[in-house]
Design a protein that fits this description.
Blueprint (H helix, E strand, L loop, with lengths): L2 H14 L4 H4 L17 H10 L10 H25 L11 H20 L15 H9 L24
Helix pairs in contact: 3-4, 4-5
Length: 165
């Protein structure tokens, strides 16, 4: 192998390695981010997400994350449609992308709270910068971890079967 091939392989491994981290590093112990938080419906999820604009603490339910993701993607798609269809490139119309940019910080906050619901740190969002984008979406779609559950504990010793003493 040439030196250039080895360099390319090393760069590929450094880029793809974070994608395996969620399967290797599993949180242990009870959920340390507080009691579960439930929101019901689109309006409640959006109100919760926007009222906690800079709040990266606490937990967010799967529904809250999903509805807020729908709002974020919808705002971006609407901005793109308005930019392309209505103005048809007549102006420098980058102003339409202000709405998705304003929603970026609360989206990151809701994602951090969603990761807290899975008993993981909000810093797991850094996976987006590598091959871990799909792994991050997989994590964000998982069911919540109960506040008192222990994830990686297995019973110690033999398992008793009924009838055996």
């Amino acid at each position: 192998m040439s030196l250039e091939t080895l360099q390319q392989l090393a760069i590929l491994l450094l880029w793809a390695a974070p994608a395996a981290l969620p399967f290797i590093i599993r949180p242990a112990g009870p959920n340390r981010f507080g009691a579960p938080h439930e929101t019901h419906g689109f309006e409640a999820a959006i109100k919760s997400g926007l009222s906690k604009y800079f709040d990266f603490k606490g937990r967010a339910s799967r529904a809250e994350y999903g509805w807020f993701l729908l709002l974020f993607v919808g705002a971006y798609v609407a901005a793109a449609i308005l930019d392309g269809a209505i103005l048809d490139g007549a102006f420098d119309s980058k102003g339409f992308y202000i709405a998705p940019l304003l929603l970026l910080i609360p989206y990151v906050a809701v994602s951090a709270r969603r990761l807290h619901d899975l008993n993981r740190s909000g810093w797991w969002q850094v996976l987006v910068f590598g091959a871990g984008l799909f792994v991050l979406f997989f994590l964000l779609a998982k069911p919540a971890v109960p506040s008192g559950a222990r994830l990686s504990r297995r019973p110690v010793g033999g398992v008793r079967m009924s009838g055996n003493r």
